[in-house]
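[09:14] KT: can someone run the structure on this one? pasting the chain below
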Amino acid sequence: MVLNKLLKPLGIILTMTLSNTSLASSQLPLEVQLGQKLMLDFRYFCQQGHSETCRTPMTSLPSQLADVISKYHIGGVILFSENTQDIEQIVHLNNQLQAAAHKAKHPQPLFVAIDQEGGRVARINREQATSFTGNMSIGATYPKHGTHYASTVATAIAKELASLGVNVNFAPTVDVNMNAENPVINVRSFSENPDVVAKLGAAQVKAFEQQQVISALKHFPGHGDTHVDSHTGLPRVDHDEQTIWQNDLAPFQTVIKTNAPGMIMTAHIQYPALDNSTLVNKHGKHMLKPATMSRKIMHELLRKKLGYQGVIITDALDMAGISDFFDANSAVLETFKAGVDIALMPIAIRTPSDIEKLTRLLQTLTEAVNQGLLDKHEVAQSAQRIYELKNRFIKGSTQVSSGIARATLGNPGHRKLEAELALAAITQVKNAAMLPVEVKTQNKVHIIMPDQRKCEAMRQALELYSKAPLQISCSSLQGFDPNIAHAAIKQADWVIGAHASPQQSAVEIGGMEDVSKLEEFALSRQEQPNALKALLQYAKTQQKQTLFISLRAPYEITQFAPYSDAVLASYAYNIDVDNNNRVAGPAFSALAKVILGQARAEGTLPVTIK
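[09:31] RB: done, structure tokens below
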């Protein structure tokens, strides 16, 4: 003990501790190390039937899945909205998951992960958890508030996740949105400015991890300048190396230096300037390596040049950017060869018969190590990084209390912060003497919204904050009678038109198993911009004052501004329905306050509008 006290100031105890831990980890059986390198999803589970048609949400852990976790020493599980129905259920499920991990021969706590970015991507019921208005709304507040909202929002999200037993959040997104047509990032990005993205991302990493929730910076080396969603295809970024370092990589480099996150998530994207080597896909064709499978990008660049020593995790391997070109076993093998630590969603276990797929995957990986295709020392080092990360963040009992969770999720302080951010982000892009509106008794207002729920949210917000009664009518762009809409516009004193673009992506509504739903949205939405433009043009022929609201990515403002006297951007349209069937959302409340002159629009566009 005396010797320890003398050596402690010199850091020798720390060195010895890590060395001993490393030795112990490398001596663990190979199957334990490999199991720790897998993060599975149990989104759906059916005791019978086919996995392709199983859509029964897994809300309580079946014995077969508990056995999978303990038998194969699985390192982590990712939760989706289907797994998170209410507070009591989430707490019970997470306690079950950790109890299963504890029963393993060589027990390690589970990574329990989720995509709770805020805004577009939030997996926990919005009526219970505080989802906030997302990254671009935080970016809109940066010129006035700096990193304040990045930090406070991440702190609130982390407190809510930790109370539920979730210890990994796949956030923040530090992609620099440089492409107005980007279908999957857009408002999930803080800004088009790499320096702003870096500062806000670093603030969120620090805030998440101060609450003992591991953050996962994503999507390395950058998903900001793509027009393809990697859920549905394989994007390619043709930037030269200088542009890549100045834009795509800059936020990652800065955050790694200032506040390195526990995890970094890969992007299924080709970057020929970073790696132009090829590999043969399952169709027998040579193709450029996606970043997820590139050793030059994952090991030489991320580990050596950028100096990142934490855990690297893939984006979901069932995404089309990978699964269209590789079978599941090959995909995992190639990512591990590239130097990635954890394979996320390598196979789908939807029925008991699917468990055999996991057995075969682990056999394939074991053979790859024995044959030298995977370096056994690298596998041991990878497992060691995982163990050390768990040791840093998952301490003591992993069981959580539903009482604490009920007191934490959606508490008044978090809801207040949500409303403050929504208001601070509202941006006035144009105002030709229309705003604030001077309301007179029984003014008639016609609202045009993408759907009826947003109509109702805007109507109720205006009625709540108006100092005089309003007569409000509405047209939903999902389906309306032009004659009725024209008649309502004719009668109106002023008109509000709103739109949200781009369309929903797979990540927003869940994951790859939701891709078929995209067609339903596309069919109903493809004519909406033209319909809105026609109604705004008609309003101008009737000399009506018109306000256009961009509800998501503000690039669309260019299209509608010529037909509007005023333009506002909210970057979000989250809607909750309370027990009294009141439809509301923080963005709509903030918009109503600005429209009616009860607050100023003080946000700044985080991206350039042509």
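[09:33] KT: thanks! Confidence is low (pLDDT under 50) at residues 1-23.
[09:34] RB: yep, looked fine to me
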